[in-house]
Each structure stands twice: as structure tokens, then as C-alpha cells.
Predict the structure of RVT_N domain-containing protein.
Amino acid sequence: MQHPKATTKMAGNFGTMNVDLLRSRVAQLAWDDEVPSIEGLWGVIKQSLHILQEEFAPWKPRRHLTKPIWWRAAMNKAIKRRNQSWRLYKISGSRLAWTRYTALRNAAVEMVRTAKRNYELMPAKSAKNHAKKYYGYVKFE
């Protein structure tokens, strides 16, 4: 099971932002009351906020993993063991190597199926109490 490599996107670095300093800078801004329309005033406000966002929350690279949320490291190990067992079977061609390969293959497939099934059942069971989890899952799929 091959996955494409992770992609890199840019996102605002809001975690290290100094909120108190940002609030003081917003309070110092001179909002133009001379703008004739509401749309013009909104444009001024929006532009000022974008400038402050660039200053206080600069862009940083955000790594986007392409593996599913339910994927675990144990699955990677099981798939690597399965592939190694397949290579050994192809080299030797013995019945013992084939039995070992099929056992590892079945275990890896079962592990992936179980993890995916458990992840898909989680939002269904908690949809009423945890609506955010449910709609996050619906958006993800």
C-alpha cells in the first residue's frame, strides 16, 4: 500500500502570536470615518486586519500528511513484515515461506480493516453528544 509523499502548505502561525500587543495595536489604529459607504469602511478595516495578521502571525510551512487519520505505526510495521516475507517467499519458493507470508498478510489486512471500522463507528456512536466530531468526520470523508 503506497502513499504519496506529504505536501507542504503555508498557514498563519497563530500559536506564537502576542495577543495583548495585537489588541493594543488595533486600539491605536485610526479608523477613517470619512469613508462615504459601509463597503468602503469595511475594506479599510479588512485591509488593516490583514496587515496586522501578516505582522503578528507570519506564514509558516504546514506539513499535510496524506495518510488517513486512523493510520497507526503498527500498521506500517505489519505491512513491512508482510512485504519482507513476500520477498523471502519469492526467493525461496518454499511452502513454509508461503504459509508465513499468508499469515502476515492476513494479519496486516485485518489490522487495517479493524482500525478503519473502529474509526468509522466512533462518530456514529457519539453523533448526538459530540456533534463537532461527527461533522468533522463528514467533512473529512
